[in-house]
């Protein structure tokens, strides 16, 4: 008998009056998977997450955590998951250790020195008062709070926001360790590099509908790079338009291109011109999303 999926969403719909939150959303997350949930702001990601953790009731369809309905089975669902919200809020007057111990007691306790070990990994000072913490250190408190319970499912909404580059590396190490321990991670993030390095599969949502559900390698294959080329003389940018290349912006001597796939044909074309400068920049997640899904109808995607 196959294992019960940690997350199973079928035809999920949530509306706010006349406004649509999510519409007919279907996907499943497997045991031990790091699953990315992506899309631009306002796409319905937070609505979906709030339904999954039992904070919102859907208008239609089902959302289940380990086979239990996320709304009617909220008490048990909360025992099986740990959650970091995108709008993380903490008890300002408490000390960091006091707060974490309080949250541990609410969930039946944690392993001895689990809090201290996580705080040490994240370089979090347990002796500070929460109201005096920076954004990054507040995020570390949220991470320790989520990880200390060793729940079988982690639901994380922008969990690394505010972390410095070193802490981002440590965060990703912790996520890989959680996966190696058999835990499942549902990750919503705008950090494309983080998603690429961590996730096994990704779902992409737009205007409340699922527009793609792919393995991470397929997402990587669809990445575009932006190239800015400065010429010594005026050029006709139409000379560079071809499959896999889109002219994003044009001036008299500068052309900005979005390039997908092999760049060598473009480099050979540029060799015939007097190029003064050439720079590459990687797109952020929203650039990638808009480039590939701007013109696509939001149709139902098989899970």
Report on the structure:
The protein is α/β, with parallel strands linked by helices and 303 residues long. The protein has two domains: 214 residues, P-loop containing nucleotide triphosphate hydrolases (Rossmann fold), CATH 3.40.50; 58 residues, Alpha-Beta Plaits. The chain has ten helices and 14 strands. The strands form three sheets. The chain has a six-stranded mixed beta sheet with strand order 6-7-8-3-9-10, with helices on both faces. Strand 1 and strand 2 form a beta hairpin. The longest helix has 16 residues. 35% of the residues are buried.
Notable characteristics:
single chain, 303 residues, alpha/beta, Rossmann fold, Alpha-Beta Plaits, 2 domains, 4-stranded antiparallel beta sheet, 29% strand
């Amino acid at each position: 008998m196959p294992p019960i999926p940690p997350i199973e969403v079928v035809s999920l719909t949530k509306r706010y009056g006349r406004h649509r939150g999510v519409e007919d959303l279907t996907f499943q997350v497997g045991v031990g998977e790091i699953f990315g949930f992506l899309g631009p702001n306002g796409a319905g990601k937070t609505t979906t997450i709030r339904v999954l953790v039992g904070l919102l009731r859907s208008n239609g369809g089902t959302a289940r955590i380990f086979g239990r309905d996320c709304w009617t089975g909220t008490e048990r669902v909360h025992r099986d998951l740990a959650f970091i919200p995108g709008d993380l809020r903490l008890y300002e007057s408490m000390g960091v250790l006091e707060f974490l111990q309080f949250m541990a007691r609410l969930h039946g306790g944690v392993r001895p020195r689990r809090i201290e070990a996580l705080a040490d990994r994240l370089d979090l000072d347990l002796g500070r008062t929460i109201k005096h913490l920076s954004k990054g250190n507040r995020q570390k408190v949220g991470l320790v709070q989520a990880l200390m319970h060793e729940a079988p499912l982690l639901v994380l909404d922008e969990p690394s926001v505010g972390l410095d580059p070193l802490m981002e590396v440590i965060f990703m190490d912790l996520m890989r360790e959680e996966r190696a321990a058999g835990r499942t991670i549902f990750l919503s993030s705008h950090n494309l590099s983080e998603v690429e390095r961590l996730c096994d599969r990704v779902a992409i949502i737009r205007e409340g509908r699922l527009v793609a559900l792919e393995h991470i390698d397929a997402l990587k294959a669809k990445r575009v790079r932006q190239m800015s080329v400065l010429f010594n003389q005026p050029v006709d940018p139409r000379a560079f338009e071809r499959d896999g290349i889109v002219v994003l912006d044009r001036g008299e001597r500068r052309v900005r291109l979005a390039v997908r796939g092999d760049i060598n044909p473009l480099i050979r074309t540029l060799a015939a011109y007097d190029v003064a400068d050439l720079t590459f920049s990687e797109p952020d997640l929203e650039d990638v999303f808009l480039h590939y899904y701007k013109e696509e109808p939001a149709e139902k995607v098989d899970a």
